[in-house]
Amino acid sequence: MKKSELTEIIKQVIKETIRKVDGKYVVYPEKGGKRLGTHSTKKAAEKQLTAIHLNKENYADGKVKGKSRPGRVKKSGASCKGSVSSLRAKAKKYGGEKGKMYHWCANMKGGKK
């Protein structure tokens, strides 16, 4: 498959559009709205469209990847205040999500600097 063929396929699949505004190439979402990016060259704008498409593919199944949920520590009732050893002691004392969060805090504090 040639690069031009791949570019054509991507253009058909991607619903975002590139428009030229004030001498720059701007990427807009499919239904209009806020700019997704501004680029000096069309090639850079197309590169962003490709990245958007690949990102959509990664999350197409609707599953949440990993446990990146901001606020897990606070929600569980744990606190990252204290020394690494005190956090490890609390992690032993508590079970479940709260214990996991104390372990996580201790690991983050005790990481290599």
How would you describe what is shown here?
The chain has 113 residues and is mainly α. The protein has 2 domains: 3-58; 72-109, no CATH class. 50% of the residues lie in helices and 12% in strands. A hairpin with an 8-residue loop joins strand 2 (24-28) and strand 3. Helix 4 runs antiparallel to helix 5. The protein is elongated and about 60 Å long.
Give descriptors for this structure:
113 residues; 3-stranded antiparallel beta sheet; 5 helices; 3 strands
At a glance:
With 113 residues, the chain is mainly alpha-helical. It has 2 domains: 3-58; 72-109, no CATH class.
Number of domains as seen in the coordinates: 2
Mean pLDDT: 82
Secondary-structure element order, N to C: HEEEHHHH
Tell me, briefly, the overall form: elongated
- Using only C-alpha atoms, the radius of gyration works out to 23 Å
Straight-line N-to-C gap: 46 Å
Contiguous low-pLDDT stretches (5 residues minimum) are: none
| Number of extended strands | 3
| Beta-strand percent range | 5-15%
Reconstruct the topology from this structure.
Layout: H1 3-13, E1 17-21, E2 24-28, E3 37-39, H2 42-58, H3 72-76, H4 84-93, H5 96-109
Antiparallel strand pairs: 1-2, 2-3
